Known about the structure:
Largest sheet: 8 strands, mixed
Order of helices and strands: HHEHHEHEEHHEHEHHEEEEHHHHH
Bound molecules: S-adenosylmethionine, iron/sulfur cluster
Radius of gyration: 19 Å
Number of helices: 15
Strand content: 5-15%
Distance between the termini: 38 Å
Amino acid sequence: MAGSLKTYLQDPFLDRLWREIRQVGPLRSVSLDITHVCNLRCVGCYYFEEGMDSHQSPKDEAVFDDFIQREKARGTNFVTIVGGEPSLVLHRIKKIYDNFHTSVATNGIRKIPFKGLENLPIGVSVWGDHQTDKTLRGGDKVNVFQKALKNYRDDPRAFWYYTVAPGYAHELEHVVERCIENGNNVLFNYYSYSGEKGQGGALDFQQGFDNVRRAIDKMIERYPERILMTSYFNKVISTGRLFDEKWGYEVCTNLSTNNEINFERFQNGKPYNPHFRAYNADFSSTRRCCTGIFKDCDSCFDTWEHFSWVMINLKKHLATKQDFTNWLTTMYLFYLISRLVDVEAGLSLLPEIHRRVRQPEAVLDALS
Length: 368
Ligand SMILES: C[S@@+](CC[C@H](N)C(=O)[O-])C[C@H]1O[C@@H](n2cnc3c(N)ncnc32)[C@H](O)[C@@H]1O
Ligand code: SF4
Ligand code: SF4
C-alpha cells in the first residue's frame, strides 16, 4: 500500500505540497493556557464550564521562564496558546513566540501588536453575526465581532476561527462575507455544548452539524481563495467519521501523555501524539486534553484535535490517490494556517486545493 505514495507523488502539485510539509520536520506540540484570566464569559465556553481557571497563572515571571526552558529541553517546538484570553499577557505571548513555532487564539477585543510578532498566526474567534456574537460572547453589552473586525482589518496574520452552532448555521454566509470584506481568511470550528441537562436549544450539538457542513461547503465553493478548510475535513469533523473509525476518546490523538487519566487509553493500540500535553495556566499541571477534563467526548467537534486525528492517520489515506489528496491538502492547510510554509505562495494554491478535494455532494449542496 505504502508503495502507492511514490505513484501519487508523480503528480507535481501533490509533490510540491508533500515536500513543503516534510521540510518543516516533525512537530512536537503542546497546548498552553497562558493565563486563567478572561475579559469575557462566553456562553458555554469549555474553559469556564469545567472550572479550568482554578489553575491560576503565577505572577512570578521566573515560573513562566522555567516552563519555557523545561519544554525546550523536552524537545517541544510548537505551542498553541489558549486560555483564558492570551492578549491580556502580551509579553508572555512574545516569549513563547521567540522560542517555539506558535499559534494563538484570541477573542479579538485587544489587538495583538504587529511589531515583534510579525509571523504569529492569530485565530480570531467569532461565533456569529453582530447580534449573536454580542449575545453569546459579549454579555449583551460588548459587540465583540465589531471590535475584532476593527483590530484585525487587513492583518495578514489573522484568520477568523468561526465556531458555528447548529441553530446559527443560517448566519454563516453573512458572517463569512464580513470576515472576507475585512481582508481576512476563514477557518471553521463546531460548537461543543449541550447546555444544562442537555437542553442547549439552538446551541445544542445533539442536533448534528449537517446544516453547518452544507453552509461551510457553500462558502468553499464561493470563496475558494479565502477558506482554510477543505470540504473533506469539514465532512470528517461534522460526521465524526474517518473511514472505519468513529471520533471519540478511544481514537483521540491529542491527550496529555503524562497524565495518568489517559494511560489506559494509550494501551488500546490506536495511535496518539506521543509528545502532546495540555498545560494548565499554572504552567506545570496538565489535564486530560486541551478542551476537556471530564467533558463528554461525544460533544467534541474541535477542529484542532481533528487536524491531529487526520494527520496521524496517513496510512488510512493511501488506498487511492483521492484519499491521499484529501489527507495531504488538509495537512497542508494546517501548515499554512500555522504559517510554517511560505504563506503567500500557499494562499495562492487555495483554489487548486479546493478544486482537487471537491466532494460531489458538496457541489450539489452548494448549488441548492
Ligand atoms: C477557550 S478559548 C481561549 C482563547 C480566547 N479567549 C478565544 O476566545 O479565542 C479557545 C477557543 O475555544 C473556542 N471555544 C470556547 N468554548 C467552546 C465551545 N463550547 N465549543 C467550541 N469552541 C469553543 C473559542 O471560540 C476559541 O476559539
Ligand atoms: S473569550 Fe475565550 S476564554 Fe474567554 S470566555 Fe470566551 S471563549 Fe472562553
Ligand atoms: S474532548 Fe478531549 S479527549 Fe474527548 S475527544 Fe475531544 S479532544 Fe479528545
